[in-house]
Amino acid sequence: MQQRRIGDFPVSAIGLGGMPMSIEGRPDEERSIRTIHAALESGVTLIDTADAYHLYPDDVGHNETLIAQALASYPGDTSTVLVATKGGHKRPGNGSWTRDSRPEYLRAACEASLKRLGVEAIGLYQHHRPDPNVPYEDAIGAIRELLDAGKIRMAGVSNANPEQIRLANEILGGRLVSVQNQFSPAFRSSEPELRLCAELGIAFLPWSPLGGIGNADRLGGRAGAFARVAGAHGVSPQQVCLAWMLAKSPVVIPIPGSSRPETIRDSVRAVELALSPEELASLD
Ligand SMILES: NC(=O)c1ccc[n+]([C@@H]2O[C@H](COP(=O)([O-])OP(=O)(O)OC[C@H]3O[C@@H](n4cnc5c(N)ncnc54)[C@H](OP(=O)(O)O)[C@@H]3O)[C@@H](O)[C@H]2O)c1
What we know:
The chain is α/β, with parallel strands linked by helices. The protein is built from 10 helices and 11 strands. The chain has helices spanning 29-41, 62-73, 103-117, 136-148, 162-171, 191-200, 223-233, 237-246, 261-268, 277-283, and strands spanning 3-6, 9-12, 16-17, 46-48, 82-87, 89-93, 96-99, 122-127, 152-158, 176-182, 203-207.
């Protein structure tokens, strides 16, 4: 599979988003493991997760545990796989998402993720979302300490605006390697962040690249344009969407979520799909 880079680490140009396997509507464990194995068989070497990808208050880290199990039971080589997790969100129940970026909380969350993933250092640790109750400097300062202590190998941020991206990179001493923001045909407002990442050479990981769980068939109401190009190439509109994104910049690494082997197998084929400048313009 085509490779891109997060920091100095080569990863597949398409990653796997783990969220659909752990929140509302999640499949059983056996299907999730098959999905992760299908991703690995297809050459995926980036798996995105978070401690907050779980359903009940008592199954925090469900997705991290699943990924650790899938990697352990995979018969092939997993040494080139980068697991990217996050801290800073909580799911106390009733489907709600709350935030906690207190440095002591982030430190404890990282320790718990290390245990669940069964590693000495987390490949990529991302600050999940700015917390209005904690200065951003303090939250990213905690991430810097984890980096300096060797608890995490690389540091990223998520849901950050251009100012926060610059600030995070400064606090991390130029060691910010990735930004994960929402970006899809229906959600284009993070284009300034994408451009900044391209300028700084930082990986940009679009989250909900297909419009989010349950929306992939509609591609945010733009399915018509994507379906037309898909028809011309004999591929799925979702592949067209991911190929369109990949063409935006070499720093873009989409992480489509999957809960079925078929969907991730389909998504990875986007790397082989070359769209003409006219097609890209029509999709824009
Ligand atoms: N940083 C953040 O704040 C944040 C927020 C949200 C998500 N994320 C991350 O971003 C990842 C992706 O976002 P997402 O899962 O919310 O949404 P998404 O990737 O836009 O959509 C996921 C859904 O698309 C379907 N799908 C995937 N590939 C497909 C294909 N080739 N053809 C048809 N359908 C396809 C999947 O269906 P099946 O389930 O049937 O396979 C899945 O339910 C998440 O998994 C998570 O890792 C991060």
